[in-house]
Design brief:
RNA_pol_sigma_r3/r4-like; sigma factor activity; alpha+beta; sigma factor; eight-stranded mixed β-sheet; Butyryl-CoA Dehydrogenase, subunit A, domain 3; transcription regulation; WH-like_DNA-bd_sf; Nuclear Transport Factor 2, Chain: A
Length: 323
């Protein structure tokens, strides 16, 4: 590594890429966690790599390359959260469909899903630490608490290293961690069952029931799959619905307008997800969005709908020929 570092410090871009490539995927996920947006995460990652390239001469190797890169990435994300206005909410955009009055207007309208294909196979990553619920909760915490929580509880950096990354004291890091954990705990639904293991027969069974219900517009079957406290969201539209009754009314408006769909399975944030394609009169189904399911036991406890701009991230086409 010494020779590679010397070459990189001498301006060898290929050597720099070889030094940093092993950490690129996990850094992108780290930026996504902190910012909640895949597009913003990619911008932060590019800024991180540029800053690392320009600052390589000052890297004294007292910490590992990984720790040094995380310090840069974390501070780039903190700057982004403090100085950049978050994306604006968008108005309801489904023609001829009048949704029911939402429970409330959501705060995190910039949230975007993360394809499972981007998640590194690393001991530093745990499925629950990339779930939509966790990433959403991070967005409403103060930025410094987010950084401490992710670096300590998700990535297992020691308190001393985190303090150095953030130019803080160990006491302040520990205090921020305590507050962040308490805030997250308050957002946890009481008594919720754990989800089935990813890719397990139990998860596959729930997903199959959802597909059958949604594609056949079987509202009763769909509602039967939902928990009593189910949560429906649809960033960047701010509408949020809580509870089985309101969720059922929302789905009824979609089905009642005569809209029929085909669903294509994929995965996002370690969770089952589906590209949704609206069947057209000409035999072509057009992509309308992506649904991501959160499971609790043998039920669906949350459903997030994202617009069709995210479909290419999942390798999904804009349209499908008729079956």
């Amino acid at each position: 590594m010494g020779e590679l570092m010397a070459r990189a410090r001498g301006g060898d871009g290929a050597a720099f890429a070889e030094l940093t490539e092993p950490y690129r995927a996990e850094l992108q996920v780290h930026c996504y966690r902190m910012l909640g947006s895949l597009a913003d995460a990619e911008d932060a990652l590019q800024d991180t790599m540029l800053a690392a390239w320009q600052g390589l001469g000052g890297f004294q190797e007292r910490a590992s390359m990984r720790t040094w890169l995380y310090r840069i990435a974390t501070n780039r994300c903190l700057n982004a959260r403090r100085s950049t206005a978050r994306r604006q909410a968008r108005e309801w955009d489904i023609p001829q469909v009048q949704p029911p009055e939402p429970t409330r207007l959501g705060e995190v309208v910039w949230l975007e899903p993360c394809p499972d294909s981007l998640l590194p196979e690393s001991r530093y990553e745990r499925i629950e630490s990339i779930s939509l619920a966790f990433v959403t909760a991070l967005q409403v915490l103060p930025p410094r608490q987010v950084a401490v929580l992710v670096l300590r509880d998700v990535l297992d950096f020691p308190a001393g290293e985190v303090a150095e990354m953030l130019d803080a004291t160990v006491d302040s890091v520990n205090s921020a961690l305590k507050r962040a954990r308490a805030a997250l705990q308050r957002r946890q639904p009481a008594g919720s069952e754990p989800p089935p293991a990813p890719g397990s027969p139990a998860e596959d069974a729930i997903a199959a029931k959802f597909v059958r219900a949604w594609e056949s517009a079987d509202l009763a079957a769909l509602v039967d799959l939902l928990t009593d406290d189910v949560f429906v969201s649809m960033p960047p539209v701010p509408f949020e619905y809580y509870g089985r009754e309101l969720a059922g009314r929302f789905c009824a408006t979609i089905f009642g307008a005569g809209r029929r769909f085909e669903l294509v399975p994929t995965r996002a944030n370690g969770q089952p997800a589906f590209g949704a394609y609206l069947r057209g009169a000409n035999g072509v189904s057009h992509g309308t969005g992506l649904y991501v399911l959160t499971l609790a036991g043998d039920r669906i406890s949350a459903m997030a709908r994202f617009d069709n701009s995210v479909l290419p991230w999942f390798g999904l086409p804009r349209s499908l020929p008729s079956r």
